[in-house]
Amino acid sequence: MWSFDRKNGLTLLTRNGMPDEEIIGLEKSNNVNCIKKKLGNIFKENKELKEDINKRKLASVTDFCASNISVDLNPSPRKKLCTENKTDKHDGKRKGQMNEENTEYKNGEKVLCFWKQDQKWYEADIIEKRSKVLTYIQQSMKIDLLAVVLLLNGILIDASCPARCACGNSVNGVNLYCYGRNLEYVPNIPNDTHELTLASNKISIIKQFAFVNLPGLHDINIADNLITAIEEYAFVGMPSLHFAKMDNNMLTTIRAHTFDATDIRDGMNLTSNPINCDCGVYPLWSWIIERQSMNAEATCSNGTLITSLGSSELEKCNPDNCQCLNDGKCVMTGGGKVICDCIEHWTGEMCQGIVWANGHQWLELNKLIIQAQHKTTVIENMQQQLTLEVNKLCQCFSPNDATDPLDHLFNSTLNIMSILAFGKRLEYENPDFTTLRARVKYIFKHGQSLGRKETLFSWLALFTKSQVSEVIGEMDKLHAFIKQKLENHVTDNNSKFPLDLLDVYLNLSDSERKDSALSERNFFQAIIDMYIAAYETYTGTLMTLMFHLLKYPDVQTKCREEIHRVCGGKQTVTIEDRDELRYVESTIKEVLRIAKPVVLAIYRTIPREIKVEKYTIPAESIILFDLNDPQIDPKLWDNPNEFDPDRWETPQKNGYLPFGIGPRRCVGAPTVELSLFFMITNILNKFELIPEDERNLPMERDWTGISLFPKQFKMFMKPVEYQQYT
Ligand code: HEM
């Protein structure tokens, strides 16, 4: 049942059982109807997915901005930690996201603050966290055990008979009998032990190397304890082991490397343990399968014999086929698919990158990217390279032949990202450019993080068809491409004057680079995330900007007049002109408001239960912010559906959210704002944009799954003479 209310500008929907059509219960908006329809189709096709969704709690909060929700979400006393009245050098409204100065510490824990309309800083961690996403991975990593074994060979434990145990001598060595002695730990065991009985105690964990250097140990019995975990390498050092009884404990999983360098020759008993037979069982399963001569009695929690599990399914869990980074674990879903379950801070495909990272890892990457975009030398370089990009872009149009701008604008988007990342635009014909374009496009189309149309919730992608290994293959090639660029940068790099993200990365201190959040792998993935994040959003915005300049020639003329008046015939409009080109800035803002380049923010989750007005939203709910509604809410805007740059002459209410809100706001926003300004002023300075057919510029737009794009149109670009205006 949906519970639904609309009060004080807040639309809130929660649900218990979710009917197909009501997956996202945002009423009113056409875009959302479209989303519903799309997800509805997936539902109809997919029973497994329906079941999964029905197990989850889902809440959707819209009109976020209008609702004062961040204050309501956040009654915690930690709010006091966030300093008031800080100003932002870069953006009069909002503090640069993650500078150390707006990060405060409490008990060593970072508390993030963000700017809110009423001039106060608020803690925002509660909704900062990305919702967990489980996806597939592939690749492998192996631990070199040999070194460990060699190390251990030298260790001898000098132990006499442990307290509370009985030791009897036999021809083969000591029989150590510790049955039912209330032991909570494995005692020190004499090196000449032949039989070891530790059954019926209260042992809860078997530590690493617990039985090290027991060359003659023949039988071990640790049955009937409270064992919940056997640490990796716990069984190393028993080369003569014939029998191991471990039944009737509380083991849910046997980790990889537990039995490494161990041979149990005759038999083992692991029955009556609640062992999960998902991917976690792979190490045990493969270890048993390799030892055909051993009699293995081992069962899953449901009683299935582990030896009877299907090898074709379990092979997918083989670390050679499945690797999760940052300590993520491969897990198998009900459908036999293998995915990455990331530990608390990480989410996403391989538990890496920025879009799906949380906590410290996210913060460090976010800080690096934000700081880079604010460096003067980076901004100057961007301006220089954008001049070249605009010139090339304009050459793709003609005063006589009408051209569809879409493809060309995609090219410019990629180049803007390349300028930010590597400091240089690439020629459109350059093989590096065409390959990069093809790879980003492929990942965007088939990938699971941002690009899949049908998967606004990317965890839904688990259940839909996917080209996972191909996507990961493409990602790997992009990683190699970025690594190559980084290596070239090492030689070119003038560390004093960073020009791009790679320079900023290279300038990190050794200790900063040791932080796994800033490892090459994570940093490269963050760059890929940015390419993907920019791909449609930025192109869609450029398309919408062109469209409005064609649709409203008076706005175009007014922009050009302002540019000519302020810049007085300069060849290149520069960033210094920005403050005076207010109408152009207003036009860009108005386009970003009306373009809805991102309809719904990337979903987040709340780590603890929260109350919003009369609603209680359960912990772990997925929160979706509808960025569209506040931007066209009649309570916030006069004539919200009208394209009217002049409205920005007076201060507007707080409903402008093209980049989202809070610490998880778009990390590329400074580059977007700078490059949109730079591109459009320099195009209009020299060209008039003319539609091929002014009657054929419909306002309806196509929804791609993330952005709204104008319907296809063609245009001419005609050189203009500089006009002197007073
Ligand atoms: C007009 C163009 C763009 C728009 C409208 C836009 C909008 C957004 C929005 C709404 C979000 C989600 C924020 C949230 O979860 O609340 C986002 C996230 C993000 N955007 Fe953009 N974006 C644009 C271009 C770019 C570009 C050019 C880049 C890269 C330079 C970029 C990088 C990112 C990244 C990395 C995130 C994830 C941030 C995080 O998880 O902390 N975006 N963007």
From TrEMBL:
GO terms for molecular function: heme binding; iron ion binding; oxidoreductase activity, acting on paired donors, with incorporation or reduction of molecular oxygen, reduced flavin or flavoprotein as one donor, and incorporation of one atom of oxygen. Residues 80-101 are annotated as: Disordered. Its cofactor is heme. Heme binds at C666. It comes from the Eukaryota. PROSITE patterns: CYTOCHROME_P450, EGF_1, EGF_3. GO terms for cellular component: cytoplasm. One of its GO terms (biological process) is xenobiotic metabolic process. InterPro entries: Cyt_P450, Cyt_P450_CS, Cyt_P450_E_grp-I, Cyt_P450_sf, Cytochrome_P450_fam2, EGF, Leu-rich_rpt, LRR_dom_sf. Pfam families: LRR_8 (PF13855), p450 (PF00067). Keywords: Disulfide bond, EGF-like domain, Heme, Iron, Leucine-rich repeat, Metal-binding, Signal. Disulfide bonds join C342-C351. Signal peptide: none annotated. Residues 81-91 have a biased composition (Basic and acidic residues). Residues 318-352 form the EGF-like domain. SUPFAM superfamilies: Cytochrome P450, EGF/Laminin, L domain-like. Belongs to the cytochrome P450 family. This is EGF-like domain-containing protein. It comes from Mytilus galloprovincialis. The lineage of its organism: Eukaryota, Metazoa, Spiralia, Lophotrochozoa, Mollusca.
